[in-house]
Amino acid sequence: MINLDCINCDGRCCTSKKRKLYVVLMPHEIEKFKESSTELKTSEGILTVLKKSESGNCVFYDEKNSLCKAYKDRPFECRAYPLLIYYDSQEITFRLDKNVCPKTTECVDNDIEKTKKDWLNQKLSLDFIKAYSTID
Predict the structure, then answer these.
(1) pLDDT computed for residue 11 by the predictor
(2) What is the pTM of this model?
């Protein structure tokens, strides 16, 4: 996974400060997070995402302390962040979320390559990846 020092971060990936926030659960995580999740309909299908607080932030985001309450057991997408998977023009691609995460310049190539493999090792269906790709 990508190792970033998120200390002194303003929680952009956990909050709605920079974009609409959706933390997508991988198919194997749905049961584990069922009490904290809901469904999101996209133009390409339905995904299971973490619920949001009243302020629009991730349900696990501690707004007072700017920390994740589930950090040690957070979903895959959070552990892989800021690397995201997409389906573009007949192929699967990856992008760093440079518009939201100010620390993408600190990502190390070896970590990026390993995280790409972690994404692919989940053997996600193409339908899932297409639906995931339509969230932005």
Answers:
(1) 79
(2) 0.90
Q: What is the pLDDT of residues 43-58, one digit of tens each?
A: 999 999 999 998 889 9
What is the Cα–Cα distance from 80 to 26, expressed in whole angstroms? 12
Task: Please give the backbone phi and psi of residue 117, each rounded to the nearest 5 degrees, phi first.
Answer: -65, -40
- Per the listing, tokens 């349900």 go with 59
Which of helix, strand or coil describes residue 131? Answer: helix
Q: For residue 27, what are the contacts with CB-CB under 8 A and spacing of at least 6?
A: 122, 124, 125, 128
The two beta strands, 61-62 and 45-50, are unpaired
Tell me how far CA of residue 52 lies from CA of 15, 86, 98, 129, in angstroms.
Answer: 9, 23, 23, 22
CA distance 44 to 130: 6
Alpha helices by DSSP H, the chain: 76-80, 109-121, 126-133
> What pLDDT, in 10s, does the model give residues 95-119?
998 888 888 888 889 999 999 999 9
* 125: Cβ contacts below 8 Å, ≥ 6 apart: 27
Whole-number Å distance between alpha carbons of 53 and 34: 16
